[in-house]
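User: Let's play a game. I give you a shape written as C-alpha cells, and you guess the letters that built it. Ready? Here's round one.
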C-alpha cells in the first residue's frame, strides 16, 4: 500500500436531506481521497443513477444536484428515495451511509386552534391543529392572543 494514498469521509453524518421543490438541492458526496477519488452516486438498491435533464444531474466533482420542479413533475424514484455515494482510488473504495432525499412542496396551509369550552375558573386546554401534510416541518414556538405573545 502506498503511504500517500487514502480514502476518507469528509462528512458521514449526512443521513437525510429534505428540500423544497421550488428551490432544489445540491448534495456533495461526503467522501474524498488522495490521490483524487472518483466519486459516484447510486440509489440505495445499488442501481447507478443517470442524469435526467433539468431534474437530476451528477457533476464532475461528485456533487448530486436535484433541480427545482413543479408538483406535476414529482417522481418518487428521484425525489423521495435513498441514495449513497462511493469514492474510489488506488487506496480502494468506500461507501457512504444511505442518505434519505425527500422533496417537499410549498403549499399554503393554515394553523388553527381547536375550539374549547370551559366554565369560568376551570382549566381550558387548547390544541394547535397543524395540517398533517406539513406537521413534520412545522413547530409551535409561541402562542398569541390578539398579536400579543402569551407566556
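Assistant: Ready! My guess for every position:
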Amino acid at each position: 500500500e502506498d503511504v500517500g494514498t487514502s480514502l476518507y469521509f469528509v462528512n458521514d453524518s449526512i443521513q437525510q436531506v429534505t428540500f423544497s421543490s421550488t428551490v432544489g438541492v445540491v448534495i456533495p458526496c461526503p467522501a474524498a481521497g488522495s490521490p483524487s477519488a472518483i466519486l459516484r452516486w447510486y440509489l440505495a438498491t445499488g442501481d447507478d443513477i443517470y442524469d435526467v435533464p433539468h431534474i437530476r444531474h451528477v457533476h464532475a466533482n461528485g456533487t448530486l444536484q436535484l433541480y427545482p420542479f413543479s408538483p406535476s413533475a414529482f417522481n418518487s424514484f428521484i425525489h423521495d428515495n435513498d441514495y449513497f455515494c462511493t469514492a474510489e482510488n488506488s487506496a480502494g473504495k468506500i461507501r457512504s451511509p444511505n442518505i434519505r432525499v425527500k422533496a417537499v412542496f410549498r403549499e399554503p396551509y393554515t394553523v388553527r386552534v381547536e375550539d374549547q369550552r370551559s366554565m369560568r375558573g376551570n382549566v381550558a386546554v387548547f390544541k394547535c391543529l397543524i395540517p398533517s401534510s406539513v406537521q413534520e416541518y412545522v413547530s409551535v414556538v409561541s402562542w398569541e392572543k390578539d398579536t400579543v405573545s402569551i407566556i
